[in-house]
Write a structure and sequence with these properties.
- This protein is an alpha+beta fold and 253 residues long.
- The chain has three domains: 10-165, Beta-Lactamase (2-Layer Sandwich), CATH 3.30.450; 179-214, no CATH class; 218-252.
- Helices cover 43% and strands 17% of the residues.
- The chain is built from eight helices and nine strands.
- It has helices at residues 10-19, 29-42, 77-80, 102-105, 141-174, 200-207, 218-224, 226-252, and strands at 46-52, 56-63, 69-71, 87-89, 112-119, 125-133, 182-183, 190-191, 197-198.
- It has a six-stranded antiparallel β-sheet.
- A hairpin with a 5-residue loop joins strand 8 (190-191) and strand 9 (197-198).
- The chain starts with 9 loop residues before the first helix and ends with a helix.
């Protein structure tokens, strides 16, 4: 078995991975959707969103396996992160790098491995979206293109996560009292450093680059504008009766 080499930019790569703060987090629907689509697209029993950490590969999302991680030395994905191009092994038993790998000789008995690198804008490859089969075969051009698109989508979710974390941290650093916002328990206004109370959206807009649009939620409509709600319901009933009447006339005609 050939142990995967360490990338030349390993320290930068690990720093980029840590900035997502994703390792060890619970399953999330958006990542699970990606692995499900990958498995269905490539007709494979296993699909993984694998992140290559210092000594392990950890699965943010998985289809077809129960384990949460494996050691990095066994990882196919640790080989795949050396290139921006996908690593496709049609039959691991015919590849000297992997023939005696414990994941080939034992469960999950890898034969096909197709790993598509998760690469950010700084060319840091933090892991892969991969599909695995227990029988040897390749992927079609269409399947490869879909996998590449799914890998880009996974990176987009990770980048969105990182930006959200940075926005929260940036906001907290602008507030005093250890990042605590003083709010009214009743009207939910926020108090600024001068002791002035203002609506929370105005408070946040003055301290961040957040913008707000306004509407009225269903609960507030029901509580504060019952007449409007009643009028809407009456209008809906009238429209329903009108549709039923038109259908009746059409049938009679």
């Amino acid at each position: 078995m050939k142990t995967p080499e360490i990338p030349v930019n390993e320290s930068e790569r690990l720093k980029a991975l840590s900035e997502y703060r994703i390792l060890g987090t619970k399953p999330e629907q958006n990542y699970d959707d990606i692995t499900k689509i990958a498995s269905l697209t490539c007709d494979t029993p296993i699909a993984l969103l694998s992140l290559v950490d210092t000594n392990r590969q950890w699965f943010k999302s998985k289809v077809g396996v129960d384990v949460e991680e494996t050691v990095r030395d066994w990882s196919f994905c640790a080989h795949a992160i050396h290139s921006p191009e996908p690593l496709i092994i049609e039959d691991a038993l015919q590849d000297e790098r992997f023939v005696d790998n414990p994941l080939v000789q034992g469960e999950p008995q890898i034969r096909l491995y197709a790993g598509f690198p998760l690469q950010n804008d700084q060319n840091h490859r933090i892991g892969t979206l991969c599909v695995i089969d227990r029988k040897p075969h390749g992927l079609t051009d269409v399947q490869c293109k879909i996998m590449e698109s799914l890998a880009r989508q996974a990176v987009s979710f990770l980048e969105l996560r990182k930006r959200s974390i940075k926005l929260i941290e940036s906001f907290c650093s602008l507030t005093e009292a250890g990042g605590i916002i003083s709010t009214c328990s009743y009207c939910r206004k926020a108090k600024d450093t001068n002791g002035h109370w203002m609506h929370l959206d105005k408070y946040l807009s003055s301290r961040t680059n957040l913008n707000f649009s306004h509407g009225i939620c269903d609960t507030c409509i029901e509580e504060h504008f019952p007449d409007v709600l009643q009028a809407w319901r009456a209008e809906d009933q009238a429209n329903t009766k009108g549709i039923a009447s038109n259908r009746s006339n059409y049938s009679c005609g």
